[in-house]
Amino acid sequence: MQIQTNQTSGYRTTKVKALLADPDYPYILSALFSGEIEQLAIEDGTVVLKKRVKISENPIRALAFNLKQYQILAGTDDGNVVILDSTNLNVVHSFMAHGDFIRSVAVNEHQNCFLTASDDNCVKLFDLRNYTLKNMYKDSKHFVMEVRFDSVDPTHFYTASLDGKVRKYSIFNTKRIETFYCRPEKSASLKTSTKKGIKNALSSLRTSKTISFKAFSNLSGVNSFDFVNKECLITANDDGYITMYDRSRNTALAMSKVHNGQINRVRNIGDGLFATCGNDGSVKVFDEMCKVEATMASNFKVWDLCIHNSHIVAGTDEEILVAKIVTEKRTVRAAGEKVFELRNRELFTTRVEDGVEKNLGSFDEGVVDFMPSKNGKVVAAISYDSIAFYSCLGLRQKLVVDSACDVLFADDSFYVVVDNTIKEYSNSYEEKQTFNLERVERILDEKDGYLLVATAENTLLLKEGITVEKLPSTEEGCIMHNTTGEKFVCLFEDERMLVCSGSRKNVVDLSVISYHSSGNTLFFSTETELRYGFIDQDNFISFELKNASCEILGLFNNTLICCDETKTVEHVSIDSKFIEFQLDVLVGRKPSTPVDSFRPRAIAFYESIGRLESALDLTANDSQKFEILLKLGQLEDASKIAGSRAKHSKLGEKHVELFHKTGDQKHLEKASESFYRAGDLGNLFYTDSLSTRTHLDYVGNRAKKDGALNLSLMAHFVNQNYSESYDLIKGTKYERMFRENFLEE
């Protein structure tokens, strides 16, 4: 999904508190703080006012449709529910429902009832035909911010409260069915896999213990919630977090901070996507994996949003923003020389070398993700209840594995996770072997006959189905070799990477977003950079490849295939000769590659690993040589080529640093000489005052000429040149005191 960047502030208004739209209604409704309701249309990307009516002297924060009877229900801050004709916005009826602000109204046309939620901590159920009170729900300990009927069973409904709880009820009685807490504590038990979609997360949870909402910490209020699909709901919280739940099992699937500060609304906008808006002035659109697909921004707080005729509409304190939505859902993968792209149901492939695109065909309904084989000849189509395998030649179906939740392609076979088992199939789709593994969730990697597998409790390294190493739980990881060919496992957590081999474990402070391992080189992306690295003995060292964030799809012929947030594919060239040079150096081999084409990078590499003498040998000019001599502590040699004031100043700073370390007075004297050549009067005053005082007279005279009178006074005074000091202090209230103490006998 994409949002056009040419946002239109086509309609200025004040303090939009609620927006409402429906596919069966031709207009957008806007509820204002002024007590007015506006009927709006989008014409040529611009918001146009069709009608405005004032229904209250108080703000309106809630709107709902009763399109079966062509009505609109509005909730006001004085506790009234106002019913309007949906065409002309004429008031049909109004009545007092609460004694405080009405925050939300929800209509159930099939059951002929509607709900209201209020700051009086109460939810009320009314008859839609005669507006009589049917039930009242008073469990909340704080304001009830939103109420919604269950998208699966409309006789149930949910409420969201600032006491941090989501509650579930029936319309037939007031007994609470379930209480859900706002968001969970961050713990290993919540490490479910969402990077391959909700299907994968749900499958992993079905093999694990239930995590009760009642065990969650009440950390923030819930301002809004919505149903992402039949199985999941998502909450928007006071502290900028969203939390997605499998509501049938009362289990958290994902939790993420997506706004700076309060989130005011979360909305399901269709096609597996949902959107949020908040006080930070942003609207963000997410896919079902809680990954940001698009954003739009405002200079004001955004209170509500809605979708109308392929536009996303956001209501702020000062204006209504509109942006066009491109509803095409795109997923991009790479394998070998091909880039695959799933657009809605159609699968396309593009050759890396010539960029020629080919339409392979269409999948059946229900495919939420796909995975190509390493050679790009087979593709696995992942749906909620199965994984189907297709030949890329004509997109012909070859195999369907029911109840499968994950797949990994190796060179000569592929592995599928099915109900606590891992099944291996040959490339001719014959089942080769099956081994049981309790609560298995994902296969992370395969290399040299080893499988790296994630279970509900651990990450396991397997050889022929037997566990050879048990590692901490993670969602992502890979098998790779260090520079000497020893096997290691890299595990990627939220803010760190674990490099493991047997009992050896090294923690690296890196937040890896995507990665691709090739031999003993790991290419990875962070939030700001594209990098690559090696495991040198037990330590991981990495280097910047590009100062930009992207998702790594694969590697082909020294070209890293990546894509940005808009799914635009980008090719990043890899200097394989420089990487070969680095590996030669790390393992102690004489570099086989001439360094002329990458001399500055080779120097920087030697410096980064502490090989300063080797870096010095490669220097091609005095500037490079000077910097390395400083780092080596060869200050006499550095002084000989310090041909500028800036270099002399650096040399002086280095001498001061060595004085602090050694206490040797000669470093202060040499620092003074360097600062003198640099013209650095401030530093020269201090170093010379504490050493030979050779240059204090120069500092005093030069500082006076430059207008630095305080520095001049201090230099002459420390140098006991009182007559010069008196000239500087003459005319001040200290003149007489100075003369009597330092000039008169």
3D structure, described in words:
This protein starts with a strand and ends with a helix. It contains 13 helices and 56 strands. It is α+β, with helices and mostly antiparallel strands and 745 residues long. Strands 1, 2, 27, 28 and 29 form a five-stranded antiparallel sheet that branches. The model is unreliable at 182-199 and 201-218 (pLDDT under 50). The radius of gyration is 34 Å and the shape is flat.
Shape: flat
Name of the CATH architecture of the domain at 2-326: 7 Propeller
The total strand number stands at 56
Chain-averaged pLDDT: 88
Classification by helices and strands = alpha+beta
Q: What is the CATH level 1 assignment of the domain at 2-326?
A: Mainly Beta
Helicity level, as a percent range? 10-25%
**Percent of sequence in beta strands:** over 45%
Low-pLDDT segments, ≥5 res: 182-199, 201-218
What's the quick description here?
The chain is an alpha+beta fold.
Break the fold down into its secondary structure elements and pairings.
Blueprint: E1 2-3, E2 8-12, E3 16-20, E4 28-32, E5 36-43, E6 46-54, E7 60-66, E8 71-76, E9 80-85, E10 91-96, E11 102-108, E12 113-118, E13 123-127, E14 133-137, E15 144-149, E16 156-161, E17 165-170, E18 176-181, H1 198-206, E19 222-227, E20 232-237, E21 241-246, E22 251-257, E23 263-270, E24 273-278, E25 282-286, E26 292-297, E27 302-308, E28 311-316, E29 319-326, E30 330-335, E31 338-343, E32 346-351, E33 357-362, E34 367-372, E35 378-383, E36 386-391, E37 396-402, E38 404-409, E39 413-418, E40 421-426, E41 431-436, E42 440-447, E43 450-455, E44 459-463, E45 466-471, E46 476-481, E47 487-492, E48 497-501, E49 504-508, E50 514-518, E51 521-525, E52 530-536, E53 539-546, E54 551-556, E55 559-563, E56 569-573, H2 576-587, H3 599-608, H4 612-618, H5 622-632, H6 635-640, H7 645-662, H8 665-678, H9 681-689, H10 696-706, H11 709-718, H12 722-729, H13 735-743
